[in-house]
Amino acid sequence: MDFGRLITAMVTPFDGEGEINWEATSRLVDYLIEEQKSAALVVCGTTGESPTLTDEEKLKLFSFVKQQADGRCKIIAGTGSNSTRHSTRLTKEAEKIGVDGVLLVVPYYNKPNQEGLYQHFSAIASATSLPCILYNVPGRTTVSMSVATTLRLAEIPNIVATKECASVDQITWIASACPEDFHVYSGDDSAGLATLAVGGHGIISVASHVVGAQMSEMIEAFNSGDVRRAGELHRQLFPVFKGLFECPQPLPNPSAVKYALGLRGIDVGSVRLPLVSPTEEEAAFIAALLR
């Protein structure tokens, strides 16, 4: 399974009462595919506020987005958690719905060792025929999956990719030794071009909600050999990549990108507590980024 070069980790639209806004979700899916050139969408990942969604809401979102996309892009369900049994159960339910793959985050809070990580992911993969994407994000989980563990998991046939947020160094080591059909994605927009340069496959992105078309152009330029143009586009986009998270002080994802979507005319509502909306200062900063 090739999920493409640019994957958007999609926000979850909410209404004024904090419930899922299905009409806005429909518009968002169309916008991300048609205007922002997403090859695939991650539904109910971190950017989709997975910690505050119930399993019932997640399954409804998987089904709804799959139907709305209608074959125009791949749908990847965020089914990972810090419970192997829970992740396995949700993955099986997502498979019944007909999603194209699953994203499995490194377990957070309970801090497993490397053998525990291997057994966690291998157990989930063995319970499904779906392609599985690993997700290493030590800034959120406190545990980082090692290069050795990632490469060990890459030998499992339906573990097909990793979303790597640890460092470009780690991406380089994985890309240097993984099977040819195992894809390495950057989970950090600002490291996307560097990831391609060291042999990575693409980017699983937040910024692609608002600059996806330009990011797709950057990736295409790099892959066609026009490195100068790719670098130029990266430099143009870099303030957006960094600003959506720094804003001007750190702002929890997806607060900034939801606000940015509103400025683009795509109203996806606010965030659920414990996340909060941007302050006036932060909102002005985001608006300036998009000018």
UniProtKB/TrEMBL annotation:
<feature type="binding site">
    <location>
        <position position="47"/>
    </location>
    <ligand>
        <name>pyruvate</name>
    </ligand>
</feature>
<feature type="active site" description="Schiff-base intermediate with substrate">
    <location>
        <position position="163"/>
    </location>
</feature>
<comment type="similarity">
    <text>Belongs to the DapA family.</text>
</comment>
<keyword id="KW-0028">Amino-acid biosynthesis</keyword>
<comment type="pathway">
    <text>Amino-acid biosynthesis; L-lysine biosynthesis via DAP pathway; (S)-tetrahydrodipicolinate from L-aspartate: step 3/4.</text>
</comment>
<keyword id="KW-0963">Cytoplasm</keyword>
<feature type="binding site">
    <location>
        <position position="204"/>
    </location>
    <ligand>
        <name>pyruvate</name>
    </ligand>
</feature>
<feature type="site" description="Part of a proton relay during catalysis">
    <location>
        <position position="46"/>
    </location>
</feature>
<keyword id="KW-0220">Diaminopimelate biosynthesis</keyword>
<feature type="site" description="Part of a proton relay during catalysis">
    <location>
        <position position="109"/>
    </location>
</feature>
<dbReference type="GO" id="GO:0008840">
    <property type="term" value="F:4-hydroxy-tetrahydrodipicolinate synthase activity"/>
</dbReference>
<dbReference type="InterPro" id="IPR013785">
    <property type="entry name" value="Aldolase_TIM"/>
</dbReference>
<comment type="function">
    <text>Catalyzes the condensation of (S)-aspartate-beta-semialdehyde [(S)-ASA] and pyruvate to 4-hydroxy-tetrahydrodipicolinate (HTPA).</text>
</comment>
<keyword id="KW-0456">Lyase</keyword>
<dbReference type="Pfam" id="PF00701">
    <property type="entry name" value="DHDPS"/>
</dbReference>
<dbReference type="InterPro" id="IPR005263">
    <property type="entry name" value="DapA"/>
</dbReference>
<comment type="subunit">
    <text>Homotetramer; dimer of dimers.</text>
</comment>
<keyword id="KW-0704">Schiff base</keyword>
<protein>
    <recommendedName>
        <fullName>4-hydroxy-tetrahydrodipicolinate synthase</fullName>
        <ecNumber>4.3.3.7</ecNumber>
    </recommendedName>
</protein>
<feature type="active site" description="Proton donor/acceptor">
    <location>
        <position position="135"/>
    </location>
</feature>
<keyword id="KW-0457">Lysine biosynthesis</keyword>
<dbReference type="InterPro" id="IPR020624">
    <property type="entry name" value="Schiff_base-form_aldolases_CS"/>
</dbReference>
<dbReference type="InterPro" id="IPR002220">
    <property type="entry name" value="DapA-like"/>
</dbReference>
